[in-house]
Specification:
Layout (H helix, E strand, L loop, with lengths): L11 E4 L8 E5 L16 H5 L6 H4 L9 E5 L20 E2 L9 H4 L8 E2 L3 E2 L5 E2 H30 L2 E9 L17 E4 L8 H13 L4 E3 L7 H5 L7 E9 L4 E2 L4 E2 L3 H20 L1
Parallel strand pairs: 2-3, 2-8, 4-7, 8-11, 9-10
Antiparallel strand pairs: 1-3, 5-6, 9-11, 12-13
Helix pairs in contact: 5-7
Bound molecules: zinc ion (ZN).
């Protein structure tokens, strides 16, 4: 577990490089497990924890040792999801919502900015959400997370003229009928660049080649294309490169009990080598 720099109540942990900085930033928006007291959900805690990308921050903990920065959310994504637009809200389910809203398909399936259902069919609430509580979640958690990522990326771009950003996630070993890939067995990694819009092909190739040569099965943009954090700050033609990485949870954890498996350290060694490769690439 990454220890927060300031206090356990901070919504975001930022770990700066402990050696000469390189323009590489790793962020883990979904590994947080500090559940706010005002969540007020009816869902069983252990079930709720299955929405987390548990331990993903730990898998990338080597980044500061190679000059990269690491940012991790401390709050859970089911409370408010930093990998969604702050407008991805279904106003019809929020009492008194009078602000802008642009609900996407994700909101309609219960996984928008504010999750209302787990795995498409299990409700998180037996009450109506209020505009006031949603606005508090955005102000106190979503905005601080995005400020951390945006400010760090802008600082790297200003100093180096470019940045390489890896947005880090994990995925269930297989989905369900509500997922784009149904119940099919998933491969080891999915790397996404919004079909070429968020990264240079060279950076994409660096990451996919490294993982393939380490013996992993890697898919590109299938079934995931990337989401808000890789879309919002990327612009390859001005040196702003963002990739999303999804790690199959069966490679490192017990999905039911939310525990590290015996393979955890082996996978972390592979990812430490990947982080090192990215940091060397970013420097040149
Ligand atoms: Zn995730």
């Amino acid at each position: 577990m990454i220890e927060p720099i300031n206090s356990k109540n901070e919504p975001v942990t930022i770990i700066e490089p402990d050696t000469s900085a390189v323009p590489a930033l790793f962020d883990s928006p979904h590994s947080g497990s500090n559940y706010p007291a005002d969540f007020n959900t009816v869902l069983d805690h252990k079930l709720l924890r299955r929405a987390e990308d548990a331990f993903v921050d730990e898998l990338f903990l080597a980044a500061p040792g190679f000059g990269g920065s690491l940012i991790a959310a401390r709050f859970p994504r089911a409370y408010v999801d930093p990998n969604r637009s702050n407008l991805d809200i279904d106003p019809t389910i929020v009492e008194g919502w009078d602000s802008a809203a642009e609900p996407s398909e994700k909101s309609r399936s219960g996984k928008g900015l504010i999750w209302t259902h787990l795995n498409g069919d299990t409700p998180l609430y037996n009450r109506e959400l209020t505009a006031n509580e949603i606005k508090k979640r955005i102000d106190n958690y979503w905005i601080p997370y995005h400020c951390s990522v945006e400010n760090s990326l802008n600082a790297l771009h200003q100093k180096f003229g470019h940045f390489y950003h890896i947005n880090c996630h994990s995925m269930r070993a297989r989905g369900n009928t509500f997922d784009p890939d149904g119940e099919a067995e998933r491969c080891d990694f999915v790397i996404s660049d919004h079909e070429g819009k968020s990264s240079s092909p060279e950076f994409l190739n660096l990451v996919t080649s490294y993982l393939s040569s380490a013996g992993f099965k890697v898919a590109i943009n299938d079934p995931y294309k990337g989401a808000e954090l890789t879309r919002r700050y990327s612009d390859p033609k001005t040196g702003r490169h963002s990739l999303q990485i999804e790690i199959n949870r069966r490679l490192y954890m017990d999905e039911i009990n939310i525990e590290r498996s015996a393979n955890f350290n082996d996978l972390r060694t592979h990812l430490t080598n990947l982080v090192k490769t990215i940091c060397i690439f970013a420097k040149t």
